[in-house]
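pipeline/complex-builder :: batch 7 item 3
reading input block
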Amino acid sequence: MARRQRSNPLALAVLACLVERPMHPYEISTTLRSRGKELSIKLNYGSLYSVVESLEKQGLIRARETTREGRRPERTVYEITDAGTIECEDWLAELISVPVREFTSLEAALSLLLLLEPNEAARLLDERAERLRIDQRGIDAAHAEAASMQLPDLFLIESVYRRTMLTAELQFVTTLARDIRSGAFQGTDWWRRIHELRAVGIGFEELAQDPVGHLGEEAARWFNQPQSS
Amino acid sequence: MARRQRSNPLALAVLACLVERPMHPYEISTTLRSRGKELSIKLNYGSLYSVVESLEKQGLIRARETTREGRRPERTVYEITDAGTIECEDWLAELISVPVREFTSLEAALSLLLLLEPNEAARLLDERAERLRIDQRGIDAAHAEAASMQLPDLFLIESVYRRTMLTAELQFVTTLARDIRSGAFQGTDWWRRIHELRAVGIGFEELAQDPVGHLGEEAARWFNQPQSS
DNA sequence: AAACTAATACTCTGATTCGAGTAGTCGAAC
DNA sequence: GTTCGACTACTCGAATCAGAGTATTAGTTT
């Protein structure tokens, strides 16, 4: 059998549902939704049906029966196979135990930060911070409600995780904005200088070709310097 | 013109390169690589060429010339348009200022943690922690090297961000593992009980149908309880 | 009782993404 | 002198994804 490629976590969620009992795809989607899983696992119909099809092809689930009520569309009920049960636990264990490198959009943006003028960058970071605080409050409100219902921690764990990461990002973003403005961020001087020159019509190209002339001795070392993770 | 959908950050990186000077796609890829951007922005050839094509269709870049040396494949050199320059700054500003919800695989896994036996879960979390520590040390080594070359902070900022998030995740993961084992994690008792019952052949299905009988009064409230973000 | 709304249960199509594959060039080593 | 691997510069197809669209029915309003 072709090796699973374990890309879309939605497939894992499907297996997890079918471990409980056989269901048809639409029922899987409503189940996931009612349990709030769609907040942690991206769920959309297009993917759901193709993921189910692919799981069946791999022998991890099998169609059990096809029913239809009246003239509604057919519903195919799927059940998990033994291979599927194993795959489910195995996959989950892997997701927990080995971190995968995820490319976030903020990281991408930060790596191109040079393109923005420093004060502008600081302003945008403040904006982000404000939005992050709003998200944080949203989670806190949800947690307060959950606490009042005495839900066990296990049901909130993914949300606690999100809250942790949100807080760390907020901390990073506010510190960065502050340091850019205060100059504590090392090299802000020539970053600012680059944008002053650009405002007078000197482009990146010229800067890269003659960093010494425009930015001074040190700058030469930085251009096209290979960077590290 | 059709509204940009700003999905793949690689397109932004392409624009950012072309702001500097006209290049052909392969040159863009080597430039990004030599500057270490491919550590923050996923880069693969297939995507690069389709992204370039799409940017051209949208009028954000234009083909300047097509050259060929000997019998090598053609190289098409692209340059950025005015619309492209604007889009580049605008997009970057958006990425910085508005956080987007990203679905991480750990979050997905945590939302299904119930499926693993608690001690097993704790063990897997420890494994992850160890791997995260290794990643952390890798970043630290890279930073030490960068410091010895006196690279300005701006060139390391995305890596500092990664390090921040890594640390937060590590903190979360170790705490969680500890709390599961100590029982500080509220509800570990019935989580453990569920798996004891399963080991004796009582499946999730039966539990969900008669939570009171198997797990006691309180458990009834939790099943199929809608959850919050 | 007709119309409207919400929910059920998919289906389809176009776009995107991935990564392996290809085909030529160059320099160095054997 | 040729073989080898590394680099250059893409191309292609298969898989995946997204999300709008469709068709039916149950319930609710007017």
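note: The CA atoms of residues 19 and 80 of chain A lie 6 Å apart.
queue -> next item
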